[in-house]
Amino acid sequence: MMVARILAIILFLSMVAPLSGLEGNNSAGVIFQGFYWDVPEGWYGVLADAASDLSDIEGYSIDYIWFPPPSKGMSGSSSMGYDPYDYYDLGQYDQKGSVETRFGSFDDLKGAVYAYNSNGIGVICDVVLNHRGGGELEYNPDTGKYNYTDFRDVASGECTWSYDAFHPSSYDGYDSGTFGGFPDVCHANTTVMDDLAGWGNWLADMGFDGWRFDYVKGYYPWVAEEFKNSTGDPFSVAELWDRDVGLIEQWIYDSGEGISVFDFPLYYSMRDVCTITDGSADIRAFVNPYSSIVSNRPELSVTFVANHDTDEIVYDKMLAYGFILTYEGTPCIWWKDYFDYGLDTGGAKEPLQDGNGIDRLVWVRGALGGGAPEIEVLYKDGDLLAYQEVAHEGYIVVLNDNSKNWKGQYVETRFADSDLECVAWSSTVDNSKPMGKTTNSRGGADLWAPPRGYAVYAPVQ
Ligand code: CA
To answer: Which protein residues have their CB within 5 A of the ion that is ligand 1?
Structure first.
């Protein structure tokens, strides 16, 4: 009881002086996905415990952590949150078999949000706007059919919708997509959008700092745009799960060019390069505007290597992290890669060295790239990609997907007559530290990367 009271006081104080952005922290310019599919029950406690570690990765902090959808789902404490029943039940009402959600109680959630906010880290809420689950069966006089669309008895007493809030309704018959057999929310019903905006503002008031829109294929782009605009216009990122660059860029345009998208085309390009271990995939795909969003719209691209749905890259995953953490866009690090698969400090061939792992790349991005690197491509062929950071202290990256050979290339960098050292590298074939180089008066040098790996060079400090 005392703990709860102290927590309430802390939360009250945090609302009086809301923390926004990254005051006091050295930003690395990265997002971190704070969960995976089927996390253990009580996950908010695990999340809270990780906050201080993630605020100091070699002196640099993540900018945002992405939380799972917080609302009580139709399957109660076993739900991962993607089947929202009562939007306002974040673990404080006894319904669907439990008070707590899979992740914990309402107080556990507030404590976890506070753990990040108090470390200057924003919390992104995963919002599921396409569908609801777990309503009672009711008769729809307009269609003459029975559907599970009656949500009038939710314990919170909020968003008490029934059949006309779902497709087909008197407002419209359908939208751009449905999900499984879940009742498909009709956003053309103005009560629905007003209710969702009210819910979003309530979430923002309790400390959430941004949105991750689940399954935007299921509704029109204006829905996400309006939700964002009516909740203070925070950072937002949409899940448009498709490899088609044209489709995603059209969605960016249709949603007002203010909502970021996960870079699924780049994800698939990287999956190919990592998975085809004989090196025959073409690494130029990473920077080709027909096979990645980040090469064309870096300001709206959230790049990622894995997420709760796509844990598919088994080999040479650090090749992909070596790219996203040093390139443009906003990279998103996945929980399991960092905490369970050992990529925080590893992912290379043993023995691991100080220059290996995600931690070192986060330092590169923060310390040498200002958390917002601007990149110029210097060289590319089917095996080799080289680029430099041009707007901050700077670095040069060489990526090599050849199956067994070190590869080098003469490139002219922005650093003339300089001693370069390798500050980060990784290889599952030969993890020796790449040698330092001295550039000529034109900034030129032969820079090498190990097979199935990368090397990051910077002037000797
Ligand atoms: Ca829909």
So the answer is: 130, 175, 184, 218-219
